[in-house]
Amino acid sequence: MSEVVVSVLVGAALAVMTLGVLGLARFESLQLRLHAAAKVGAVGVVLLSVAAAVAGTGLRALLVAAFVLVTAPVASHVLAAGGEDEEH
Amino acid sequence: VIIAISLLVPWAGALGVAGFDGRRPGVARACVLVLLAQFVLLCVLAAQVLTSGPVEVVAGDWPAGIGIRLRADALGVTFALTSMLALLGAMAFAISEGLSLPASPALVLALAVGLTGLFLTADVFSFYVFFELSMISAYVLASAGEEPHHLGGAYLFAVVNLVGTFIFVLGIAGLYHLTGTLDMDEAAQRIAAAPDGSLPVAVALFVAFGVKLGLFPFHLWLPRVYVGVLAPVAAILSGALANIGAYGLLRFGGTILPDALAQAGPVLIALGGASILYGSVQAIARRTAAEVLAYSSIAQVGYVLVVLAIGGPIGFAAAVLYAVVNSLNKTLLFLASGVRGWLVGALRSCSSARRCRSSTSSASSRRTSGTARRTARRRRPRRARCSSRSRRSSSCSACGPSRCSTSASVPPRRWRPRDERPAGRRRGPRGDLPAPPARAQAARRPPRRPGGGRRDRGGRAVAARARRRAPRVAARAAAARRVGRRRRRARDRSGGRRRRRPARAALAAQPGDRRRAVLGAGARPHRRAADDLPRVGARRHRRRRAAPRRPRRRRPRPRARPGADPRAARPRHAGGGRLMPALVFDVAVVWTALLLAGAVLVLVRSPSPFVRILAIDTTLLLVVGFLLLLAIDREQAVYLDAAIALGLLGFATTVALARIEREPPG
């Protein structure tokens, strides 16, 4: 059972990460790229760490998720603030 | 005997120097010589203490307990040496910069007396006396400087520290009430014998020294003061005076009131942790060197407090070491922040800024408030540089607008509008954030550089005020507007160019041409990417003006596809008939590797620096994901630790790179 859950979670995470990287590569402006790339961290890594928690590595995996959820928006914000002069 | 001499030397020096005008270099050099002699004396004393144990002297043949008892032990000598070193450095720096306060050499020497006595006394009351002596000289010293914000910083410093000193006197009174003695050793013994009621005393002393150090709940004065005063004064305050707090905590907490210290351990650790977090976060969020240093000193003090609360011989040793290192560090850093404009070769602009200070700055800094006033000192040289550069470039018509958009004149320009914005919006990224509506409009209008014109509400009014303020400022503003207009025009032109370029890129078949086209795609008038290459490209593309607009920015697509398409990888690893998670793991690992390759490709090929930073960030996150996959497969938590560490590293990298890219150092 948990194997199925883990597989589904990992698959979902990889799908989202793929979309994120594709967006990072293909979108035109920095803002759009940020929008896409933020998914890699906020959804992809978090789903993976939930999968790790389900797979039995315990709460420490959720710590990774919490950490990414805290830092990823800040990093995106700093990048967006820094690149606001770029073309839109 | 050496203890007494080490007090007498700076004292005599202070008296001797006080009669002369301290702005004369000779007097300042004499002060440095006295400090040097003092330092050597303390070194001798330290050697004596370290080889043969603490040295004690009771002044004036009085019986112990009545006469002033001086005692040099390792702790006191260490702090005394550190403080002298900080004073020496600050004074030497002040000489090279030119002193602005006639009394400063004498004050520095008085401070040296106070600090030496304070660290070398064995008596609580003489501790207080020396404490006051050094604080009073520090109050006056802090007011050095010619501008209102210098005085404002000194005023705040004096008020807060007077309150702290008052609380300290209350603590001493409580100690005397408890023990009936003012001798440190005896007080310690009596408290150890009857520890009841020592907690309020300990709290009072802790608050007093916490105020001195700028610990978390008592930190509010510290950034404003450290940013407000001159750089050498800030170095003295953070390098020499903050030692009082650390020494006081160690001496009173560690030796006189160890029980209370042990009782309060968890609270102290919590406060120290709060200091660390608060100071670090604030330091990251600040823009000017002085602000960053001020907040980081709050954080550093938190470390001292935490190790002190951990206690034991190791804890105390760590606290001493950390306090000493931090004090020397902060001295150097504050001095370096003062020297910054000088090292980047803006010597002439700095001196001209100093000359025009009296005419423009007093008016402008009185008008501005809050942060601006605090940071005005850092910005003024930059502004001066900006004005001279822009004036030069506008007078030189041969340069053309492209020269104006290169990195040379941009950093000052980025500073300028923030400096003159209304008070609430002056603070870096947060101040810039409310811009989106304006940006939405700007998308329809011809684009505008943020530094070129005034972006905020009532830009005209601001400009008019600037014109009223002083002719020099107005001339600068006019020059900036001129450059801004030219830049906008240049941008319009380059915008047209940019629309044309992708056509060129689409036409390009040769790899060499493609490379040039990619470089050209980055050739918006971005401040650093666009130097010379874009202009070359522009001239070449002028013929193709009629090319269609549609295929804009096609470039990344073919690059990313081979790396990022998962389907290419899947069939290869689908066979094998393994268990489901193992299969998932294999596929996922390969998939992640391909995603990584895609992100790295974006990193390599992207024209914009911020997109490159974003690609770095994404790459690191993908590696974190990779580690998580490994953790799932191996069921080992080590990979999770590595993932957290890498995530932290990636976060710090992203933030640091973005900030450096936004405001190039220097």
Descriptive tags:
heterodimer, A: about 90 residues, mainly alpha, about 90% helix, B: about 675 residues, globular
Based on helices, strands and strand pairing, what is the structural class of chain B? Answer: mainly alpha
Q: What is the overall silhouette of chain A?
A: elongated
Counting DSSP H or I runs of 4 or more residues, the number of helices of chain A is: 3
> Low-confidence parts of chain A, pLDDT < 50 over ≥5 residues?
none
Query: Portion of residues in helices of chain B?
Result: over 70%
Mean pLDDT of chain B: 68
* Largest sheet geometry of chain A: none
Largest sheet of chain B: 2 strands, antiparallel
The structure class of chain A reads: mainly alpha
Count the beta strands of chain B.
2
Share of residues in helices of chain A: over 70%
Principal-axis shape of chain B: globular
- Average predicted confidence as pLDDT of chain A: 86
Question: How many β strands of chain A by DSSP?
Answer: 0
Q: Approximately how much beta-strand content do the residues of chain B carry?
A: under 5%
**Cα separation of the termini of chain A:** 47 Å
Query: What is the quaternary state of this protein?
Result: heterodimer
Strand content of chain A: under 5%
What does this protein look like?
- The complex is a heterodimer of chains A (88) and B (666).
- Chain A contains three helices and no strands.
- Chain A is mainly α.
- The longest helix of chain A is centred in the middle third of the chain and has 28 residues, at 30-57.
- Chain A is elongated.
- Chain B is mainly α.
- Chain B has helices at residues 2-18, 25-52, 74-97, 104-119, 124-142, 148-179, 184-193, 198-213, 221-228, 231-256, 258-263, 265-285, 289-310, 312-343, 347-367, 370-395, 400-404, 410-420, 428-432, 436-444, 459-469, 471-507, 511-521, 533-541, 556-564, 570-574, 580-605, 609-634, 638-662, and strands spanning 55-58, 69-72.
- In chain B, 45% of the residues are buried.
- The interface between A and B is large, with 54 and 67 residues.
